[in-house]
Fold each of these.
Amino acid sequence: MTAPAQAPAAGGKAPRRRRPLSFDRISFFAVFLLVPLALYLYLVVSPIIQAFYFSLTDWSGYDNNPNFVGLTNYVNLVHDDLFWTALRNNIVLAIVLPLVTVVLSLTLATLVTVGGSSRGQTRGIGGSGFYRVVSFFPYCIPAIVTGILWQQIYSPQGGLLNGFLDVIGFHNLANTPWLGDPNLALGAIVVAIVWSFVGFYMVLFVAAIKSIPAEIYEAARLDGAGRLRTAVRITVPLIRDNVNTAVVYLAILGLDAFTYMAVLAPSGGPDNRALVVTQYLYTNFTNAKYGYAIAMGVALALVTLVVSIGVLVSSRKQEVEL
């Protein structure tokens, strides 16, 4: 005798039956969910909680029982002019670096993929493969080596840049102290960082543009759209996710930038014009002010989180509008 069929619930949908917990399901949850979650909590969440706790102490880095001082470190941080100077420089980097790097990378990626002849099959400019390899090369150089390289290029005494300016006739600029001038130091460092990363993001955008069907570009060409209009109205919207990812990573790089600053402006540059929070944080670590330095790290992490969420929310709104 067979059991009667179960009546469908109101609304016409049959009730979902829960599958029994078998050994396979339990082992799957344990291996692929519980173990990664436990590792994440131990390796990521736990250090964050510990860092926040030590930011509420006067820990010098050597004593095992630091005194709990509450929000004193954060109050001192608010009244620390040097911290605000460093944070301002970080914010400038977080805005300028993504803007310049993404525009240059997108331009180069467009040229080597769809910037070739307007006749025949859609293709990039001649020798695009060579340009792709050459532009990616700076990203393979370690950041510390890149810093030393540009330090020599900017040297006011026999540096490559000043020598080049002297050769082409700009003799009045041949002795410019690029890293020693308060008005030029931060911009000079931005150039070095952009040079290091523009090739990597160009390759990222090239891969994204390659995934766009060629028929779309063919249709735009038949409609009379020029290269600039095609890039702005077709390429950028279709690779928006890649662009947003690049912006987030470059903004985070701008909020760090410790390695480049430590080499090119080890003391924060003239008048602290190139000082960043991570440098100031490191100085406090070396002065045994661990609690205060960790408070800076927590504040910088919050700023980074706000910037990342802002970029992601902005990109989500743009997707909805599209």
Amino acid sequence: MSKTLFEKLWDMHVVMDIDSDAALLAIDRVLMHERTGGVALESLALAGHPVLAPDRAFATMDHIVDTRPGRGDATLMPTGTAFIQATRQGARAAGIHLFDITDPRQGIVHVMSPEQGILIPGITLVCPDSHTCTQGAFGALAWGIGSSEAEHALATGTLRVQRPGTMRITVDSQLGPNVSAKDLALHILSRIGSAGARGKVLEYAGSAISALDAEGRMTLCNMATELGAFTAIIAPDQMIFDYVQGRPFAPQGADWDAALASWQSLYSDPDARFDTDLRFDAADVVPMVSWGTSPQQSLALGAPVPTAQAVAGRDTAEAHARARDYMDVTPGQPVTGLRIDGAFIGSCTNSRLSDLRRAAAILKSRHVADHVRAICVPGSSQVKAQAEAEGLDRIFLDAGFEWREAGCSMCFFAGGESFGPQERVISSTNRNFESRQGPSTRTHIASPETVAASALAGVIAAAPVRENSL
């Protein structure tokens, strides 16, 4: 019987069927961060339950920890230090892997995990974070959970899972020379809306997806949660296998050969059936930017803000008006040219080395506008070190960017770091909700190239055709 990739992964991990719509699945990896990890570990310890497999559980400091140089346990968040120290104490007591603040492997969980080979094809992976879908880019079944589910997974190595539906989005032909995976994600969001993949396992396929590198695939899968998806997934190929091989926690030696043989069967059969099947043409995708307070409220750079009537099938009139008022934009007005106060490159969406390289190619020998506060937060300590080895930090600093330590704080105000009230920010993050990057801050999401070009111009602006080298 033909199966989708998701169905193969599901069947590989079923411990027992609970009913026709749910099963108990074996969980191969549990990831945690200090915002929820300490809570789960403390609760588990109080209940007297040990971690079943400490070697398959990992914790990092990313959400609350400060991103400023010289950081320690102190944060701008009043209770932040307690979260950090509770996670450290709980991780050490449980014997799980901990990537602490000063560990060179520390980083945003969805950046650090593939770097270390914790993420490999064919596994189930859970984390108390909604963007865990990022890690489906390697052919893993990865999804976000709550703290109580994390406790259950840690204690039993299993989770009860309601079987999701299936959806395939095929993207054929090629993205243009100045168009990235982030633009593709925003293009799809603007077409099918934030509920377009609700409750589904979304498989991306097609020639344009195969042409993406590993980091582009992670960017695309990262944004699946903005479509309402249970998770996203892409069949692994030789490029992914090459990326994984040799990483610290990846299989080695004979185990590698066995794993590779298994991974090569991880694809949807040609005649597998999906509940929903959509197609897009990559040639239709152009550089994108959001105008409102939902990722679905995105448009092509240069296009006018739509009227409420034009998007009535997706936004209610009330939601449209609220977003318009919050962002201080009017229908018919192009977003391009709006004066910005801030520029941000970071987040689990676009903070990897390739993102920094593309932005640096635009920033080199130039300077951001005098009125713009520009910040770059590499996705992990390893990304930061690699970027510094290549001299990218010098390009960002010379251009007027702040060069920070790895973390999530500037992305969503978790650790108290923020831009100012009503400041307009162009950002490589994944969400533009009200107050996402600080109280009353107005965030426009876009690719790192668009963020870099806008920082230079002082207004939302298109990037020049990509320069291929620094």
